[in-house]
Fold each of these.
Amino acid sequence: MSGFFEEVKRRKVYRVAAAYVVAAGGIIQLASAAFPAWELPNWALRSVIILLLLGFPIALMLAWAYDITAQGIRSTPTTAAPGTHRRRNVIMLVATGVIISAAAGFFLLPRVSAHKVDKSIAVLPFENRSDERENAYFADGIQDDVLTNLSKIGDLKVISRTSVMPYRDKASSAREIGKALGVSTILEGSVRRIGNRVRVNVQLINADTDEHMWAEDYDRDLTDVFAIQTDLAQKIAGELQAKLSPTEKAQIEKRPTQNGEAYLAFVQAHEAFYRPDKFRANSEDAERLFERATTLDPSFALAYAGLAWVEDWMYHSVDPTPARKEKARAAAFEAIRLQPDLPEAHLGLGFYHYYCERDYEGALREFAIAKKSLPNCSEVYMAIGAIERRQGKWTESTANLEIAASLSPKDAWVLQNLADNYRANKNFEMADKLFDRAIEAAPKSLEARGQKGALALDLKGDFTELEKQLALIPPGFDPEGIVTLGRAKVLIMQRKFAEALVTLKQLPQDVIHDSTAPIPRSFLEGVLYTYLSDRKKARAAFEQARPIAEQSLRESPDDASRHVTLGLILAGLGEKDAAIAQGKRAVELLPESQDAFDGPKTTVALAQIYAWTGETDQALQLLDRSLSTPNGVTVPFLRLDPIWDPLRSDPRFQAMVDRYGAKT
């Protein structure tokens, strides 16, 4: 061993090693400072470190083999030591270099990988310190506007409002919140309003160290509240060294309204619309409050944009009528007329093109305009992703929804939409994890719990998960009868038809608004009586449901789901040709070629009508294709749902189920 160290000293390897360490340390320090300023990705710094680590053993070998003399670079003279000693020394030299590099890499690389984006921030809910309870909305409004102003700065990463709201009154450290949301800074604050005076206190906190970076107090007249918000956004941007373009500065400085009451109505409307479950009652509350805001201030463009979003959504989800479509159009174009450069107005107009006109290209043009001024808006990325999946661009769609989830990691609605993509493409494991995240983000969300239970049915035909999730819902909580309907559907899949019938009769309403097609309760009763082989009661129930479905279709003749509902009722009544005509019309209105997300569901509905009308060949043909189509039918669903019972006696049905079951 002493011979090895003597050789290292004689060949001046110590000197080269020391010089290499000093030079490499300087390079890493320089790169650590310069790369973020040049906006280079994190992997660039890791690559530099890896190259320097790999170079260290090579430098030692070169120092061993060569020496710098007055005559230039010359081979180092060898000693008269035996050949085995020389080989041993070289092996020890290489091993030493590799060990030192590995140890340095173990120390350096994790710290580089854990490096967060410095210009990232989460604005937590502001504490309401006012005596009046209703001023909580005022505190939320200030927080929301500060967050909105910051999100318009392209050089910042800003977490969405939905993802920070779970931290209201939650005893978590800044470090914990920063880690959960993936940000390096946290803004927290409090608001106290007394009459026409408002006091705002804010602190900017380093999420890595839990230390205060900056604090500010404001004591102003109520009329100066927007000036406070603007000043806060600009000071925070400065503290985080974020670049602020003239356009972004102008957007931040523009006041949305001069009317305090209109502003308060807007904040309340925003809160109602962005609840985790978009129930019809929530949307109607938001609609009423946005309309109040526009009545109080007819020049309030942002409120018109919000109203357009609500009307667009209601047309898309529950009320696809001409009257609703006109309300959506009027609100969207009024927002654009009042403020043509307002990004939220372009977002509202984009949703109108998407939801109401199914004009995907027109919608994408508007979303592209909004995206330029709202670089941190998860709704923009989610909207683009939603259109792309309808276009069959599943990879692009999932990428945009992943961005939306990164900007709003605690938003149950975003997480559910992302899970829908994975579920549609048969990645059930990833979908299940995302539903778990959605439930964690919004424990009271019926949608997230229901989707997780339905996924277990799709994947394994397992009822226990859905029963477990239904059992966790508080007694008496049954908005729009959704919980009762869910329990009835589980009983139907378990073939407990008599129990399902009893459960359905507990519904207080005669018509269930579960989708764009109102579902008469009597239709579901007719289905159950059919399963129970009580033809007389089944026919009476279908006859009772028929005029409701026909009236619904007259109100919205271009809605595919309403054609499906009437088609199934007609199939139950034995009117074969009329039933099939309704199913075919539904597919014409919503073909898979135009909608790769909902189109496959309409195809399956037509297969159900074929099955009920004795057209076995056509039903099997559609199901065979659906089993290999994204968002199509699944094998467990075919095995469990009694609606396919008319096909079970055909050996082709069982062969198809077995064939696809083996693949999955």
Note: The chain has four domains: 2-113, 120-253, 257-374, 509-663.
Amino acid sequence: MDAKKGMLFIDFPPVLQLQLKRFEYDHARDIMVKINDRYEFPLQLDLDRDDGKYLSPEADRSVRNLYTLHSVLVHSGGVSGGHYYAFIRPTLSNQWYKFDDERVTKEDLKRALEEQYGGEEELPHTNPGLNMNPLKFTKYSNAYMLVYIRESDKEKIVCDLEETDINEDLKTRLRKEDEDKENKKKEKAEAHMFTTFKVARDHDLAAQIGRDLFFDLVDYEKIHPIRVLKDMPFNQVKEEFSKEFGIPVHSQRFWWWSKRQNNTYRPTRPLTQQEESYTVGQLKDAAIRMNSSELRLYLEVVQENHLTLASRTKDDILLFFKLYDPEKEELRYVGNLLLKASSKPSDIVPKLNEIAGFQHDEDIELYEEIKFEPNIMCEPVDCDVSFSLNQIADGDILCYQKRCSLDQHRHPNVSSFFEYVHNRQVVHFRLLEKPKQDDFSLELSKRSTYDDVVEKVAQHLGMDDPSKLRLTQHIPHLQQPKHQYIKYRSIDHLSDMLLLRNPNQMSDILYYEILDIPLPELQGLITLRVAFHQATPNEVLFHIIRLPKGSTYSDLIDDLKSKVQLSRSDAELRLFQVNNNKIWKVYLPTEKIDAVHDPNVPLHVEEIPEVEKSAGPRDRLVHVVHFFKDNQHIQYYGLPFFFLIREGEALSDIKVRIQKKFEVPDEQFLKWKFAYVAYNRPDYLQDSDIVLSRFQKNIYGPWEQSLGLEHSDMPTKRANQNRHSFEKPVKIYN
């Protein structure tokens, strides 16, 4: 019984917004696609036409549903990216405008309508004498939404805008945007007169160290730049600092900040009196000559109980101090001290205890933070020799803590804490079966061994045997797991598991699987996904089969026979591989599995029909594929199959047998077309054609020819959206 499904409307809105389905999911390719097909839309849309066929019986027929096009919204690009803009005629006059970000231009009717229909466009040849065929290309800019206004309501909708109609919040926002635009314009015009520099103070060091930063002293990327006139004298900058921060000029000492040979950044030396007389522009030029991309300074401020900064001598050094608490595993900045290089660290122990809030005679340990890349270097300081003999100079960092035994805390000293911070890595673990969502996260060390990682994961999952875990690396730019899993103990450390080919690109995602047998044992086996095509009923059963390495396909057949139900006890099986919906390879029982088969591609197995055993010497087993046309290109889909064609058999007889094989109704089968396909080009067959006359190749090997079944009723790019009788149901067995 034929039936029609549709929708009727009680009424239509004054403003009608229609979205064209330009994006959809392609089941055949398992991706989202953009549909660039041509779709023509009218300038006027009459929804009362054909005696109001769109209206329900209870609709008000006195309302005239005649609409005029107001806006055309356009997407230019593909499914993974592009640009949006719109063609609008605000007053419904003949003048159209293109709104493209902040740019508005006048456009004509053809540009707004016809050129946004989509489809293909023809270009003339630059040398028409060589080829008279037109050049065609797909238009990737096309309309995806239309806005219509009902004629009877346009006076209410398309009307003059009064200032009182604008919301006050919007007015304020627009005024601010105008002010910002003017300020940016002014800044751009005056840019040649200004420069910027950055100054780090103890306040910045204390705010960053132990939170955003553990090594070195400050991240200048987080220091707000100061914008001044290039010709401003630096002494005037000191005056401005005095006003803003309440720091007297005589209490300020600015230091050059530079990169050391070991790739650390430290204050190097104070600005000289002559340098302080320079302009900011001159100082910046000097910084560039010292291989610095910008002017970076550190501001030393007078210490407490002093009215002014003491003048420096050659024996003076400025040191920075961090305090480590092994119990809380916390590191913080506690200040700087101007000291004599000839003095000993033991001389300042009482002062350091006072700063930390320790007892006056607390036993403390001092460490020098030397570098952190590529490896941590943080060494104990000998408190009984001078700073100079310890090779400690301006800008060096000393870390100190209460002395404790090595087994008292997880990270008992500064060095071990730095190692922990330097190597710690939060890893997000995802179940391989659900690769798009995080399952849990663990904090690990980049130096963790393979055994350390699987043991921590097993503990989190409550597993007794970590060897039953299998890990797989992540590909960041594809956002998916790698094709090959990590073999047992094949990668030494976590850092190597997360590091990809690009040494600067490190992932923080790993995938895991829980196996039913230990991974070392599993690696000694071949794991195959086998798709068994049952003769009756017409369905596919998936099995996971494991065999020892070195097994042949004959061993696989023996194992599979114990798991499936055959139509006959003496049935013979055929093994083949499908690639891109075509039969790619037929395997012989004597072939070794691990030598020829890709374990990530399902192996197809089917019973060899009895009819093939009675084949004549000139009969031929051919490869049959399903396909549809997409912009004149062949798209294969569905499951291919083998089919025996008799010598002298006409297409009309073959059709009868294929229709019976798939139990396709006559109405549907009449839409199928049959073609001889070679090198992806179909040559359509007539019912009277003797099909085998087209096939000259051997049965086995790379198939370059096949019998093709074209499904013309298959909507473009929607190959597997509707199930056909030849698309077999699937069952999976582990």
Note: The longest helix spans residues 168-190.
